[in-house]
């Protein structure tokens, strides 16, 4: 019958409230709330549970508003006690735990001690979970000892002893009862006296000390009769009855039990009355609970919304920061890009300027080099022809070789530059592949003899007789490859093989293979050799190349839309191969041939005027012309030319371009202004493409680049003179 013990428990509970209410609180309590709490406690003690709950709820609201955890905890404690009294044990435990939660946030150990004790009561005597309950009691004792409140220790030990006896663990219970007995005089009050006597009775009975047990029970009953509160007396009668029954005094046992029930009836009626008056209230109590929950909830909400708004603020700050960083990066980027663009533009301009300068530099340098080279080559040739006795001179042939080397270097550089500047456009000329290759073979015979090599030509008979394409560039490619093969092969064989690989409409694809059995090229060097000025294993004194040959070949093949393939084994030989498509169209070939082939043969003696400021070149040109049985007059500059033309007639004028006082273009213009229509051919070291436009607009008829093949000069001379005479 748990109800019987509630009073006792409440008694202890009330004691706890009393102690916390009376003792000076460590909390910084608001006086008004403190008053409310005390009022709620008073009402509770007078069994005005409804009022107590209303007041404690108000106290809780006020305490929550000022966040006073001590007062919050005390308010919950009273609320829990009210529910306990109304036998709503779960709610009581719930609110005791809440009270404990808030008490733990304070340093009020007295409050914690009370709450642990009350929770111990709940679990031991209501829930019958003795181990949990005893754990709570022991915590309560620990707090009491901490604050040195020995009265609390005494009360809680009574509870512990009773709990152990309830589960028939007399040995353990007695340890606590012993302490209670030793401090009884100091702390006991009317109610505990009854209980302590009764517990001693139970223990003595358990030890079969019937005499002592009887005395203790009777003492308990006597004290109980003096006490206003009858619950304890009722308990004492019950335990006494059990004892009497045990010692076979059944009649007395029965009487004690009757007394117990009578008291219980009485108490039950009182409780019933209390309960009845509270029946209507209990509904409201739920409402209070809800409101209390709401207060709690609002608090949680408040803290949640506070947390939320904190998060929002943090997020806002974070997003703002990120945006700021983004904007800064964007601005920096834009600035950087602007700067970068400007830099790029500047760099582009500089690059363009540099490229222009490079082109100008190359053309100027090649002009300046070609002019004296013309003299060197020309005079060497003259010496060799005029003085046959020295034609075998080693020095003279070295001179000729060096001059030719220099000339080819200048031409190569100019050529590469032109290809890089995209100035080369392939021409359509008609040719016979066999003839072209034979010419190449013959022109390289000196080289093949030098290294004792044989050149073999193998041309696919399927290849048509006439093809159309840029034969000059093809010759250049083959010359480079074959001369390399001859240079890097000794006592060996160089093969030139051309095969027809496929025919697509008018396009005939020719596979070229230039193969030698010379020194070969190491694998590591194979990719390098196509770069400009790269020579492998070249000796300083060896002037056999410029390192530009393969670079030119690769670029020229690029113009044909072809690529070169290298296959080489060090010590075994090298082969280069590529494919070029040439057009085969008989009708077109015919018209091309018709256009070119003019009768250049002439037995006439023409009179040529040479306008040239360079004395050596004057000499060379004059010699070449006179050698062909033409007459020749040389003047040093444009003015002299104009002067002589006033009185004399010529069949053709060879005009240098770069002359002091008045240049070749200006001189030509003035000659034309005089109404003189004599053909004028520019004889210049400039690159043809560079001056063609200006030459034609000044009134010139053709251009010959120094140094030139004499045959070419005479072909042009004859052609122009014939053309003029035909008009
Ligand atoms: P170079 O003027 O030196 O011949 P090239 O560009 O024509 O310049 O050739 C580059 C280098 O490639 C040469 O110096 C040589 O080492 C190597 N080479 C080219 N052709 C051959 C070959 N047929 N056999 C061996 N080595 C070669």
From TrEMBL:
Residues 607-721 form the Response regulatory domain. The modification 4-aspartylphosphate is found at residue 656. InterPro entries: CheY-like_superfamily (IPR011006), HATPase_C_sf (IPR036890), HATPase_dom (IPR003594), His_kinase_dom (IPR005467), HisK_dim/P_dom (IPR003661), HisK_dim/P_sf (IPR036097), Sig_transdc_His_kin-like_C (IPR004358), Sig_transdc_resp-reg_receiver (IPR001789). Residues 364-584 form the Histidine kinase domain. Residues 278-305 form a coiled coil. Pfam families: HATPase_c, HisKA, Response_reg. The chain crosses the membrane at residues 311-331. This is histidine kinase.
């Amino acid at each position: 019958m748990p109800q019987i013990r509630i009073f006792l428990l409440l008694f202890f509970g009330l004691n706890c409230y009393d102690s916390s209410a009376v003792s000076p609180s460590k909390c910084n309590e608001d006086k008004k709330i403190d008053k409310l709490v005390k009022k709620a406690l008073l009402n509770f003690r007078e069994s005005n549970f409804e009022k107590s709950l209303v007041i404690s709820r108000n106290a809780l609201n006020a305490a929550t508003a000022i966040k006073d955890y001590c007062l919050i905890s005390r308010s919950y404690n009273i609320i829990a006690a009210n529910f306990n009294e109304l036998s709503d044990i779960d709610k009581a435990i719930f609110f005791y735990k809440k009270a404990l939660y808030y008490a733990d946030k304070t340093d009020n150990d007295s409050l914690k001690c009370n709450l642990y004790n009350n929770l111990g009561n709940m679990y031991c005597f209501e829930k019958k979970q003795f181990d949990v309950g005893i754990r709570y009691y022991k915590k309560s004792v620990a707090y009491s000892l901490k604050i040195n409140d020995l009265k609390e220790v005494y009360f809680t030990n009574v509870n512990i002893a009773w709990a152990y006896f309830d589960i028939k663990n007399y040995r353990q219970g007695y340890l606590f009862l012993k302490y209670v007995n030793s401090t009884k005089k100091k702390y006991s009050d009317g109610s505990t006296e009854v209980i302590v006597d009764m517990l001693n009775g139970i223990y003595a009975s358990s030890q079969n000390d019937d005499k002592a047990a009887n005395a203790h029970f009777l003492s308990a009953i006597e004290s109980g009769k003096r006490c206003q509160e009858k619950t304890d007396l009722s308990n004492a009668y019950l335990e006494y009855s059990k004892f009497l029954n045990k010692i076979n005094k059944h009649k007395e046992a029965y009487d004690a039990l009757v007394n117990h029930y009578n008291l219980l009836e009485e108490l039950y009626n009182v409780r019933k009355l209390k309960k009845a008056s509270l029946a209507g209230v209990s509904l409201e109590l739920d409402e209070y609970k809800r409101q209390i929950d709401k207060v709690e909830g609002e608090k949680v909400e408040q803290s949640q919304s506070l947390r939320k708004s904190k998060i929002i603020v943090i997020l806002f700050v974070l997003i703002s920061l990120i945006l700021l960083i983004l904007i800064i990066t964007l601005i920096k980027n834009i600035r950087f890009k602007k700067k970068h663009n400007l830099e790029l533009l500047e760099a582009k301009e500089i690059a363009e300027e540099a490229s222009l300068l490079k082109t100008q530099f190359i053309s100027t340098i090649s002009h300046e080099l070609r002019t004296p080279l013309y003299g060197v080559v020309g005079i060497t040739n003259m010496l060799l022809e005029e003085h046959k006795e020295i034609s075998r001179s080693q020095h003279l042939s070295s001179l000729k070789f060096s001059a030719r080397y220099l000339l080819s270097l200048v031409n190569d550089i100019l050529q590469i530059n032109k290809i890089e500047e995209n100035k080369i456009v392939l021409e359509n000329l008609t040719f016979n592949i066999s003839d072209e290759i034979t010419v190449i073979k013959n022109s390289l015979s000196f080289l093949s003899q030098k290294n004792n090599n044989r050149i073999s030509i193998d041309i696919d008979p399927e290849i048509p007789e006439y093809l159309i394409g840029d034969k000059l560039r093809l010759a250049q490619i083959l010359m480079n490859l074959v001369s390399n093969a001859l240079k890097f092969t000794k006592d060996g064989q160089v093969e030139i093989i051309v095969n027809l690989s496929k025919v697509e409409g008018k396009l005939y694809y020719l596979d070229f293979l230039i193969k030698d059995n010379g020194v070969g090229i190491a694998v590591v060097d194979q990719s390098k050799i196509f770069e400009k000025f790269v020579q492998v294993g070249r000796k300083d004194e060896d002037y056999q190349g410029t390192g530009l040959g393969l670079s030119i070949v690769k670029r020229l093949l690029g113009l044909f839309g072809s690529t070169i393939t290298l296959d080489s084994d060090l010590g075994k030989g090298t082969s280069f191969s590529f494919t070029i498509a040439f057009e085969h169209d008989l009708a077109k070939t015919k018209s091309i041939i018709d256009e070119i082939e003019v009768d250049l043969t002439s037995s006439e003696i023409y009179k040529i005027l040479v306008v040239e400021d360079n004395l050596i070149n004057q000499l060379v040109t004059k010699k070449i012309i006179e050698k062909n049985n033409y007459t020749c007059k040389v003047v040093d500059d444009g003015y002299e030319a104009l002067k002589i033309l006033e009185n004399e007639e010529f069949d053709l004028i060879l005009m240098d371009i770069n002359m002091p006082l008045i240049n070749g273009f200006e001189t030509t213009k003035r000659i034309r202004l005089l109404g003189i229509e004599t053909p004028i051919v520019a004889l210049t070291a400039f690159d043809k493409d560079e001056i063609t436009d200006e030459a034609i607009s000044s009134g010139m008829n053709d251009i010959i680049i120094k140094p030139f093949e004499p045959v070419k000069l005479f072909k042009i001379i004859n052609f122009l003179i014939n053309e003029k005479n035909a008009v």
